């Protein structure tokens, strides 16, 4: 009789807006996430890894947690409670043109009719949100809102009406002739929208403490015969909303552990984490540092982007396991799950420490 090891809850982070070769495009980290979910039996990751515009993949082993919530989870402030389904509220920016609003409402109706999702309420902000895009000195994408107060008011209305998760659609600037957009569509550079998307979802999750994720509203792009396959998911429809609705439909509830709430049998807390998998140049984030603080095995995967916050730069040295690919990282996760010392897989075999 074959005995399988218990799941090893594993965190997968590919930071938004840093141009990673894997995870810097339209859901192109999803195959790697599926592999890590199979290796670990329980993967906690964020929308940037899973969202593929019109493309998505539902896996009960993958827990969809917005980036701010993921940081709070990793730092032991919040827990995660798996649910059968969420009641999704749709939040639309008043700055979206009527035809584009209709496209997004039709996606929501299509998900209700074809996928059986519970999308309960729609609200439009009382003022246009006014999204602006920018970039940091490192090349990472960023953004600001003119009216964050309008965003939060609309979110409060949806939560009061019974929504347990919120899908946000904000009107983003069109810059069809920009060099950054051309580079992204051809497989280089950074997703210029991603940083502003993170600002929007972080604000809502921090304020409401329910699952939230964002899809930008944009004009349709012209056809491009030289499109990189990693960007192709964003070319298949008029909106990026479908993957967000599917992801949110079973996103775990967020538990404030400081409030004294009781932790149930199937809840996930940071103390259960057995590994974290992160690009090797992006080790400075809050979730990663929280894992290091508790000596959770950290697997740094070769996945180039614009950041160079590496194990060497942080002086971590032997505290980090190195992987040349996500396939290799999945092998290390399997070893950890099975209780196999990762050092035993190396050649030459490291010598035992001699105590003096």
Structure description:
Helix content is 31%, strand content 18%. α1 (30-40) runs parallel beside α11 (326-338) and α3 packs parallel to α9 (286-293). The termini are far apart. The chain has helices at residues 30-40, 47-50, 67-74, 98-115, 148-160, 179-185, 194-208, 241-249, 286-293, 311-314, 326-338, and strands spanning 10-12, 43-45, 62-64, 78-81, 88-92, 119-124, 131-135, 141-145, 165-171, 212-217, 253-256, 275-279, 298-301, 320-323. With 356 residues, the protein is of the alpha/beta class. The protein folds into two domains: 10-81 and 256-345, Rossmann fold (3-Layer(aba) Sandwich); 88-254, Rossmann fold. The chain has eleven helices and 14 strands. The strands form four sheets. It has a six-stranded parallel beta sheet, with helices on both faces.
Distance between the termini: 45 Å
- Domain unit count: 2
Q: Are there runs of 5+ residues with pLDDT below 50, and where?
A: none
CATH topology of the largest domain: Rossmann fold
Please state the CA-atom Rg, rounded to the nearest Å: 20 Å
Going by CATH, the architecture of the largest domain would be 3-Layer(aba) Sandwich
Detail the topology: elements first, then pairings.
Elements: E1 10-12, H1 30-40, E2 43-45, H2 47-50, E3 62-64, H3 67-74, E4 78-81, E5 88-92, H4 98-115, E6 119-124, E7 131-135, E8 141-145, H5 148-160, E9 165-171, H6 179-185, H7 194-208, E10 212-217, H8 241-249, E11 253-256, E12 275-279, H9 286-293, E13 298-301, H10 311-314, E14 320-323, H11 326-338
């Amino acid at each position: 009789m074959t005995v399988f090891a218990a799941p090893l809850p594993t965190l997968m982070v590919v930071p938004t807006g840093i141009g990673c070769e894997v995870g810097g495009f339209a859901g192109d980290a999803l195959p790697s996430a599926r592999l890590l979910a199979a290796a670990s039996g329980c993967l906690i990751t964020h929308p940037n890894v899973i969202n593929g515009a019109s493309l998505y993949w539902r896996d009960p082993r993958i827990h969809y947690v917005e980036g701010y919530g993921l940081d709070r989870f990793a730092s032991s402030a919040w827990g995660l409670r798996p649910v059968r389904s969420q009641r999704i509220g749709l939040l639309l920016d008043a700055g979206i043109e009527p035809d584009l609003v209709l496209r997004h409402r039709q996606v929501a109706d299509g998900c209700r009719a074809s996928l059986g999702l519970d999308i309960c309420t729609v609200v439009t902000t009382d003022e246009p949100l006014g999204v602006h895009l920018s970039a940091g000195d490192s090349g990472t994408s960023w953004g600001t809102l003119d009216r964050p107060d309008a965003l939060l008011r609309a979110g409060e209305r949806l939560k009061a009406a019974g929504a347990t998760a919120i899908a946000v659609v904000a009107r983003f600037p069109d810059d069809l002739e920009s060099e950054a957009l051309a580079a992204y569509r051809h497989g280089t550079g950074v997703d210029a929208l991603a940083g502003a998307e993170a600002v929007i979802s972080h604000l809502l999750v921090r304020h409401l403490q329910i699952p939230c994720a964002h899809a930008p509203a944009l004009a349709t792009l012209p056809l491009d015969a030289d499109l990189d396959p990693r960007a192709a998911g964003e070319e298949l429809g008029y909106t990026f909303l479908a993957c967000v609705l599917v992801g949110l439909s079973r996103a775990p509830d967020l538990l404030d552990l400081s409030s004294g709430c009781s932790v149930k049998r199937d809840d996930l807390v940071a103390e259960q984490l057995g590994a974290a998998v992160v690009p090797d140049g992006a080790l400075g984030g809050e979730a990663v540092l929280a894992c290091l603080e508790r000596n959770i095995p950290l697997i740094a995967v070769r996945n180039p982007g614009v950041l160079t916050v590496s194990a060497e730069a942080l002086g971590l040295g032997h505290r980090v396991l190195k992987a040349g690919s996500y396939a290799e990282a999945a092998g290390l996760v399997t070893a950890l799950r099975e209780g196999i010392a990762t050092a035993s897989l190396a050649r030459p075999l490291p010598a035992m420490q001699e105590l003096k």
